[in-house]
Design goal:
Length: about 300
């Protein structure tokens, strides 16, 4: 079994698309860290319940954000939405496409659409439409729009939020247990399968694990209060152009209430991937120094 000082957990925070996963990739590929995100177990659960693929829950954001056609929302049918097949009766030049700016017309031939008839249809600000009489319109909804089909991101946000409401720190606790199981030296870990019997503890040198989804104050508190058998390393990543949350959800917006001084390191991702990797390598070398101590201030 490793001593506590030989187990470092790198806990990475930041808005979506700021570079959290890039940092985790550097830690796993260059420093042999094991990545155990807080909501990995939740992702495995919704994969089982909804039949989502690994790509839909663990893959790039375009797959996580896309609506799943197996799960249409009631709004799709309550507004008379049906697959759109242009039989020649609609002139493409008459279709107004807001995404192309003022005066832009037509539909993207690479996208499948559904057409919805109605007035005041919600969530249509960015959708092409064909004006009709008396203020009504035909709206062209891109297939897999998360407003009309359930997306893996929405499932996870609501599922994780519910359990965190029942007990703040639910996911931090589960993740912490998994990190410590690796410390015992009797398990291996994969995001798709979780913990399995095996050995990952290095013969020489420290054990590194990391999580790239630290988003809330109680997550920080949960790891700081239990830092007895591991050394937490909190990293906040920032990126120019993403100064505000890209999504209006507590998993993003609560980060605006967390001060920089609660993190051991603040990384500015304002250059190349190579430059970001250099910053992470420097952080690893710093924390491995015998005299380095992590910040123990708890969020209020």
């Amino acid at each position: 079994m490793l001593e506590g000082s030989n187990h470092y957990i790198f806990l990475i925070s930041g808005f979506s698309k700021t570079g959290k996963d890039t940092i985790a990739n550097r830690l796993t590929s260059h420093w042999d860290a094991v990545q155990i995100n807080l909501v990995d177990s939740a992702k495995r659960h919704v994969m089982d319940i909804y039949g989502f693929t690994s790509q839909q829950v663990f893959g790039p954001s375009e797959f996580r954000n896309a609506g799943d056609l197996r799960y249409p929302k009631p709004i799709l049918y309550s507004n008379g939405c049906v697959p759109f097949h242009n039989d020649g009766s609609i002139n493409q030049d008459d279709i107004i496409d807001r995404s192309k700016g003022a005066g832009g017309n037509g539909l993207d031939p690479s996208i499948k659409y559904w057409t919805c008839e109605g007035r005041g249809l919600p969530h249509t600000d960015e959708f092409p439409y064909l004006p009709q009489k008396l203020g009504s319109a035909s709206y062209f909804i891109p297939e897999r729009s998360p407003e009309y089909w359930l997306s893996p991101r929405e499932v996870l946000q609501k599922y994780c939020g519910l359990l965190d409401d029942l007990h703040p720190g639910t996911w931090a606790k589960k993740s912490r247990v998994d990190h410590l199981e690796l410390r015992k030296g009797s398990h291996v870990y994969s995001k798709e399968e979780g913990l399995k019997p095996g050995t990952t503890v290095p013969v020489n040198g420290p054990l590194f694990t990391c999580a790239s989804d630290i988003r809330k104050k109680h997550d920080i508190r949960a790891f700081r209060e239990n830092a007895k058998t591991f050394t937490p390393v909190f990293i906040r990543v920032k990126r120019p152009g993403i100064e505000t949350p890209p999504f209006d959800h507590p998993s993003e917006t609560e980060q605006t209430t967390i001060n920089d001084d609660l993190f051991d390191f603040v990384v500015n991702n304002d250059g190349t991937i190579e430059q970001l990797n250099e910053q992470i390598d420097k952080i690893v070398e710093i924390v491995r120094h015998p005299k380095w101590t992590h910040i123990q201030t708890l969020p209020t």
